[in-house]
Amino acid sequence: MREIENRCRLVLIAPEGDDIDARSRLLEGALRGGDVASVILPQYGLNDSDFQKHAEALVPIIQNAGAAALLAGDTRVAGRAKADGIHVTGGADVLAEAVEKFTPKLIVGGGNATDRHKALEIGEAQPDYIFFGKIGGDIKPDAHPKNLALGEWWASMVEVPCIVMGGTDPQSALAVAETGAEFVALARAVFDDAGQAPHVVAFVNGLLDEKAPRFEDLPNA
After folding, report:
1. Which residues contact 149 (CB under 8 A, 6 or more apart)?
2. CA-CA distance, 7 to 119, in Å (whole number)?
3. By mean pLDDT, which of 14-28, 165-179, 190-204, 205-219 is the weakest?
4. Which residues lie across from 72 on neighbouring strands?
5. Is 39:15 a contact under the CB 8 Å cutoff?
6. Whole-model pTM above 0.70?
7. Where are the domains of the chain?
């Protein structure tokens, strides 16, 4: 999750799908649209064997675009597919165990940070990032107000970077950026219309270039 821009950057959450070729084309298209810090590949309903096949096809596409490939699912698959990291969807204990086992070899982040107390517990494990929201939680056009509030609170006081889940409207990325969060995660906003995916990524990057606050200008900088 290298830092190119001194402003909030885009993280993509890959959509579900059983067709590896279709998912490959979809991701390739989206990644051509512009800067993406990382792509989270959830296991969804795939069994471990199929998840590994998908990961082995998609991880190189992500990495060739200059993004980090983060796998959410069977952690053994991350090593076999040569992913850059793992995204943990469990709570503080699960994340702490993953941090101890896999860092610094792999990027380790995530968490189930539904309130400030849980977020601070996760932060004690010193992950590479904390995630506010949940995969599949983008059901409305705007980012969830609770996640925005948590992101703003966290970014103002903790050095561990945070990712905040956006909404189904690409414009929601700006509201996330305005919290001071380092990353905004988008899923349906980018992938609901496969043909538009590269254009949405380009639009979001343009929006953030033009209007997102720069980190050195934020009060906590």
Report:
1. none
2. 22
3. 205-219
4. 42
5. no
6. yes
7. 9-214
Residue type, 118: K
User: Which of 3.20.20.70, 3.30.9.10, 3.40.50.150, 3.40.50.720 is the CATH number of 9-214?
Assistant: 3.20.20.70
Which burial class, exposed, middle or buried, applies to 139 when counting CB atoms under 10 A from its CB (0-12, 13-18, 19+)? exposed
Residue 191 and residue 168: Cα distance in Å, rounded? Answer: 10
